[in-house]
Amino acid sequence: MSETDRMWDLLQRAYEGGDAWRGPSLRDLLEGVTASHASARPIVDAPTVWELVLHLTAYDDVVRRRIAGEPIGELPEERAWPTAEDPSPAAWRKALDAFSQGHRRLRQALAGFSAARLNDVVPGRDYPFYVMLYGTIQHVLYHAGHVEMLLLTQGVQPHGSPLPRRRVATLA
To answer: Where are the domains of the chain?
Structure first.
């Protein structure tokens, strides 16, 4: 198995396939999450589950475009951390679908990425593809933990989560 095959497998596990290293995949955690729970802000000044999904969608696209050779700098705040303007169930479904499609496109780009390029510098950045791609896997898992905690603070037991559901005091 090549290094890029291993990266693809880890990215797949983190998002949707089997157990991610840290527990359930992000897709499993999001299963059954309502628009109401996704848009709730149980921790003041922390992102919502919905905002995390939009953020991950934006960065999956950035990484895919960088793999294709496009030099992309830092995203402006409004693109890096989009907000959900319409808190409806239809808009939440659309956000989840966009995330799923964007992540699928990223995995397709990674599937066609040569392991020989892993030490090449990412266009417009000062680090190699190797760092960016493993960082992308870490990014998904990092925010999966946030999603899990945000749901638990709302009294929602995320699908596949081994953590006990507890009501915790919020800072609101």
So the answer is: 3-153
Residue 13, helix vs strand vs coil: helix
The three-point CA angle 56-107-95 to 5° equals 35
| Closest to 31 measured CA to CA, from 86, 99, 84 | 99
d(CA 53, CA 12): 16
Instruction: List Cβ neighbours of 102 (8 Å cut-off, separation of 6 or more).
Output: 57, 60, 61, 64
Q: Is residue 48 a contact partner of residue 154, using CB atoms and an 8 Å limit?
A: no
Angle subtended at Cα 110 by Cα 107 and Cα 112, rounded to the nearest 5 degrees: 115
CB-count exposure of residue 73 (10 Å: 0-12, 13-18, 19+): exposed
Name the class of domain 3-153: mainly alpha
Type and span of the H or E element at 104: helix 89-111
Distance CA 124, CA 84 (A): 29
Express each pLDDT in 124-171 by its tens digit.
Answer: 999 999 999 999 999 999 999 999 999 999 988 888 777 776 654 443
pTM for the structure as a whole: 0.91
